Every structure is written in structure tokens, then in C-alpha cells.
């Protein structure tokens, strides 16, 4: 009797188990799932290289060591990790090009070739990837990439994804899988010319991240490869549980140690190829048991990878005849660092660029966003390479008529932006001051300021199209000269004509 009862009970248990499998299909009951992943992982990362493939000093004398030294560091780390049994990933968090003469000439092709040779695992889409038109990115650069280009929050107007949203790395000798997904700043239409992203929709990154993690992140180690900025990365880590590591870019922040937010680590490696980031994580049963992060300075102690150096020399030689040409000189240093030109404090180089724009289209005033200026000019000869370093973007100079009230609104917005924001304006021909926290404009050109009067203002097609959020310029301005000559050509011609930039010239502009 007891034996029959046992047999019956056992049959019932088997029946229940089979029935559970049938009812759940491929979705195994929670208690039957594999245990969460365990692995030893090293992430090598860079971000915001902005075309700084070769060693170069900015206007502050800060050395960006370039990709040849970065390649040496990356290969050393990989070899050491192989010996230790660690898995490695090599990631770039957006804005690979735009910022140097290399970008202006090769429009990202050189950067892709170098990244292929350096064995990058994945890259997220940054806002500056669109600077040479979305067709260049999607039809020319992406097919040449031997690594996935990721962004989960960019779609066409019909809802279809533009880029691969994520990849899942399956490790053959381990049960663990790694989910890597990309996110791009939703402000991209303000940070590149709107025509470059026409027909594209940039969704809220946090909502997209939640959806991906909930749908695909179970029993995986989750990496968000973002181009949002460090503050938004921190918010993402808090608002989207389930992300283990955020490798970020956009804000050019050098995080010498990872920022830990609950169970999420946030990392970023500065900008301009000055550092290579390394993050080691030991994962056990789905949780980070131990981690260590650092930024490796690409200094004089590191040798250049001969293959990368040879490629750069080959491409540099193609540019040499044009970019080595001397077009003028300067007897003063003009600072063009991020902190100098993206400031409410007038910057001599920014004033000079705005002046050149105004003179080119016979306008009473000129406006240039600080984010358009990417380097300074040193004392001595000025070459075409220097000019492309200062003004790497393909901006056209336009002329519009704006009321005094509109100009006041634009200047007030610039002043309210935080320091180091690319939307901070440098101006020529607008004599104004701040008194008691209030903006007071005295003159526009040589005319007294009146809110109801119209004034002619030179600006770039980027600003006219609402770039950096200046929608007033396009909505209210009456275009007089649409899409004129390229700013870089106008600035180059000015220097050729003047032959020398000196203090007397700058003093006369500041007084205006």
C-alpha cells in the first residue's frame, strides 16, 4: 500500500513537471534557470577623441598623445588579461571625429580605419558623428566599421531604428553573456546642423534604457555605452536599475576613479586622446564583487604603435602640401580652450571670429557659439592646419535682421547657460554690460540700442537653424544673406589679407 502511494506521488510529480514545461514553453520556471553570470572582465575605453589621432597640443599646452600610444596601451592590457584569464572589451563612447584637420579632410574615414586596427569592440553614436551629414555616417562610415555602431534611441520618423541598438557578447567558455547597448544625447538636433539629422527622432535615453534592460538584461552583465554627459549618466544609473557599468562621453569628464551609484559604476576618460580608461570588474553570481578603475595618461613613457603611426604618417603626407602652407602670423597667443571660449567673459579669439563674420557680410554685429571654436593660435606662423584646428566645422556665414528685443533675448539666453556650455556666445559689435543682474545693451554696431529697431547680425547657418537651442534666431530673424561662404574660408582669407594678428587689432575690436 505504501509503495503504491509513493509510486502514485512520484508519477504526479513527473506529470506536474512536464505540464509546467508545456505551459511555460521556452520560459523556464525561475527555480530552473541557470545561475546569474560570473566572470572576470576588463573594459578598455576612450571617448570624445574628436579627430585627435596624432599627438598635438591645444592652446593651453595640454598634450593629446593620439591613437598610436593608445593602441600600445590597449594591446598591453589585452595581453596581460589573456594571461590572467580575463575577458576584454574595447569601447568608444562617441564623438570619434570632428575637431582637427584630419576630420575636415577625411570626414571620419581615417578614424574608422584606425579603430578597426585597434580592435574596438563597439562604439556609441555621438552628436558630432552627424557633422558631415547622416549619409556620410550611415552609408559611408558604418559599412567600413568592423565593430558595431550602437544607438538605441535614434529612430526614423516611421519608427524604425537607424542603428543597431545593442549587442550581446556570448563567451564560449563561460555561461555569462554581456549586453552592451548605446545611447545618444537627445539634444543632437541642437548640437549639429539640423539638416544633418533631418528625419531622425531622438527618444528619451532613460526610457529606452529601461525598456532594453527589462527586456534583454536578465542574467546578463549590462553595459550602457552612452554619449549623454556625466551628470545624465549618474541619473541614468539611479533611474535604471540593472545597468552594471556606464561607459560615457560627451561632457569630456576625466573620472580618474569610477563613480559608484548603488550597483552601477560610471566611467569616462576625458577627451582628445589624452587618456585610455581601464575598468576591471570581478563578477560573481550576477553582482560586481570587486572592481578597480583608472585612467592611463598617454605620456612620454609610452611608445607609439608602429602600425598606427605608419598609417597616420601616410594620411598626414596626403594633407601636407595644403596644411603646411603658411598664410600669416600672430605676435600674440589667442587662447581657444573650452573654458576660454565657452564663457560669459569675452574671449579675444571669439571676438575676432565674430568680427571677421560681420565684416564678410557687412553686418553691424557678429555672433559665434563657443562650441564652434576648438583650438587657439600660438605666437608665430599660422598655417592652414592651424585654421582647421580652430574652426573644424563646415559652418556657412549668414546675415539676418533682428530686432533689438530679439538680440536681447539671445544674449540673455547665452548668459544664463552654464559656463563651458557650447552655446555660450562670443560677440562683436554688441556693447553690453550686466548691472544688478540685468542685461543692458548700449549699442549695436555704432547705433544706439532700441528694442523696436532692426539690426543686421552675422551668424552661422548652424545658429540660424536653431543650433544650441537658439530657435529665436531662425524663427524671428529676417534672412538677408542665406548660407554664404564657409566660415573657415572667410577666416583664412582674412588672415591672408591682414598677414599679421597683433594686439592693436584686438584692442580695436574689444573697444567696439
Query: How far apart are the first and last residues' alpha carbons, in Å?
Result: 108 Å
**Strand count, sense and closure of the main sheet?**
6 strands, mixed
Stretches with pLDDT under 50, minimum 5 residues: 1-34, 58-62
The CATH class of the largest domain is identified as Alpha Beta
Report the CATH superfamily of the largest domain: Metallo-dependent phosphatases
Radius of gyration: 27 Å
Going by CATH, the architecture of the largest domain would be 4-Layer Sandwich
Overall number of domains: 2
The spatial strand order of the largest sheet comes to 6-5-4-1-15-16
> What number is the mean pLDDT?
88
Strand content: 25-35%
Number of strands: 27
Task: Write down the overall geometry.
Answer: globular
How would you characterize this protein structure?
With about 500 residues, this protein is of the alpha/beta class. The chain folds into 2 domains: about 30-315, Metallo-dependent phosphatases (Purple Acid Phosphatase, chain A, domain 2, 4-Layer Sandwich); about 325-510, 5'-nucleotidase,  domain 2, CATH 3.90.780. Helix content is about 35%, strand content about 25%. It contains 17 helices and 27 strands. The strands form 7 sheets. A 6-stranded mixed sheet has the order 6-5-4-1-15-16, covered by helices on one side. Strand 15 (about 275-285) and strand 16 form a beta hairpin. Helix 11 (about 350-360) packs across helix 16. The radius of gyration is 27 Å and the shape is globular.
